[in-house]
Amino acid sequence: MTATAAPLITVVIPAYNAEKTLVETLGSVSNQSYDKLEILVIDDGSRDGTFDLARDCGLGDRRVRVLRQENGGVARARNHGIREARGLYIAPVDADDVWHPEKIELQLQALRKFPNGHGVAYNWYAAIDENGIIFGHSRPVMHEGNIFEPLLRENFIGNGSTPLMPRAEILACGGYDAGLRDSGAEGCEDLKLYLALAETLPFALVPDFLTGYRFTKGNMSSNAYRMLKSHALVMAPIIARHPRLERDIRTAEFNTARWYFKKAFFDADYAQLKKLAPMMARKYTPQLIVHGIQDSWRRAKRQGIGMARRALGKPLVRANRFVAGIPQTGTAFSDRFTSLPVKDAMSLTSFRAADHE
């Protein structure tokens, strides 16, 4: 990076009735170790105190600017922010998610491997509940460079609050597809954009869990049937352009449906199960049979290996190279911020507010 050695980053925060979580989200953005930020909150026609809350936050950090639009969905809100952005890169974050304080700084460092920083950076995420407590995490994949085909097989980025993307290329791709919402298939707008960018740009990985991705009842990702419809609509034109990838895409669709069914089952979400069960039986019976056989074989194999290791007096669990950084279930995502003490974060915020007046 030359002139872009310290580029302006525009953070885009779509917010709809987000007064319960917006302050925490904005705090995680304002306290980034990289401070050359423009922070745009787009109030998507909220009926609660979201707008006033965002405006008040802007009084404490002059980098924050609040925009308003009639309710049009998250894609239109993000696109509004991207059009208004002055930054070279766009960093979206939903109004209920949070970031590790070094997320942006580490992503910019990762992009330096590309000429002029021309690419997309992503990281892994920790799944958090309403209280910010970790209950899971993304699979720590290591995909970099040309990630188009791996991303077709699995959305390992997994959410809309993780990537750092060049604004010009987002605009060239048409931004987020608001038409999915109009078709009753809101949910995969972020994946569609990532795939479009991946066809022309390299991706860089920051191998750490820097995004706190919040799962709550009623959020978009909890509506499994709509998400599956969205996934199918996104993949249809890709199959038309790349017919050789159809088998991989169909496998990804099955794995996505199975993931949502499994989540609904363990959450005892009977409304979702009632919709998903007949669809799974109708559409994926052969795959379910094959998967059941393969899963039984894997379990039997693991049991056999476990018995053998016990007989030989060896540890049952092999060392994992990611163990030290794996988010621990039942701990707060904020506990991962040990690299930036609270007092330092507060002084940084005060400095930035004064510096950007």
From TrEMBL:
Please name the InterPro entries in this protein's record: Glyco_trans_2-like, Glycosyltransf_2, Nucleotide-diphossugar_trans
Q: Which domain of life is it from?
A: Bacteria
N-terminal signal peptide: none
Q: Which CDD domains match?
A: Glyco_tranf_GTA_type (cd00761)
The protein's UniProt keywords, in alphabetical order, are: Transferase
A GO molecular function held by the record? transferase activity
Boundaries of every Glycosyltransferase 2-like domain copy: 10-144
Question: Is Metal-binding one of the keywords UniProt gives this record?
Answer: no
Q: Name one Pfam family in it.
A: Glycos_transf_2
Name the UniProt record assigns to this protein: Glycosyltransferase involved in cell wall biosynthesis
